[in-house]
Write a structure and sequence with these properties.
Mean pLDDT: 75
Strand content: 15-25%
Number of helices: 2
Order of helices and strands: HHEEEEE
Distance between the termini: 87 Å
Helix content: 25-40%
Shape: rod-shaped
Structural class: alpha+beta
Largest sheet: 3 strands, antiparallel
Oligomer: single chain
């Protein structure tokens, strides 16, 4: 009688189970890395918008808001989460084709502008809510609000709210 060598069904099932357990553990550990990557994208987006706002200011003499630069729609005073309006005004003035939006398409970026005594838009604040509680990925802004933006309760923003302002 000839003896055949090979793997038994039990041995194959054990190896497949071990591979499945390792794959599941890897997917769970990568979930946090994905959140951190999206948070880093949000911070980068706000910094890019800051650069766009400075270009807009150089062109128009004010930040987007209650005065128009190119005839595009104006943002109403205290527009709050009018990211779509900001996008339209900045992209029209600067001919930008890709304006940042939240990586999950479910989060929201917020823009507020500050008006000086001459009713000119001379300052702004941007905010994004992060997915991770990571103190290294936020800006410390003293006080509860910046031009109507609530950047957390108490005297500091929460670790999930990233704010930039001028």
């Amino acid at each position: 009688m000839e003896l055949k060598r090979g793997f038994t069904l039990i041995e194959l099932l054990v190896v497949m189970a071990i591979i499945g357990i390792l794959a599941a553990a890897l997917l769970v550990s990568l979930g946090g890395a994905r959140k951190t990557a999206r948070d880093t994208t949000r911070i980068s987006d706000l910094r890019n918008v800051q650069a766009s706002l400075e270009l807009f200011f150089n062109l128009c003499g004010h930040y987007p808001g209650n005065s128009s630069c190119t005839g595009s729609g104006n943002l109403p005073p205290g527009a709050g989460s009018g990211w779509a309006n900001l996008t339209a005004e900045v992209t029209n003035a600067l001919s930008i084709t890709n304006f940042p939006k939240d990586p999950t398409n479910s989060g929201i970026y917020i823009y507020e502008y500050g008006v000086d005594t001459n009713n000119n838009n001379q300052s702004y604040a941007l905010k994004a809510t992060l997915e991770e509680n990571n103190a290294a990925l936020r800006n410390d802004i003293d006080g509860n609000s910046v031009y109507g933006l609530n950047c957390g309760s108490g005297t500091q923003p929460t670790e999930r709210e990233y704010c930039v302002s001028l």
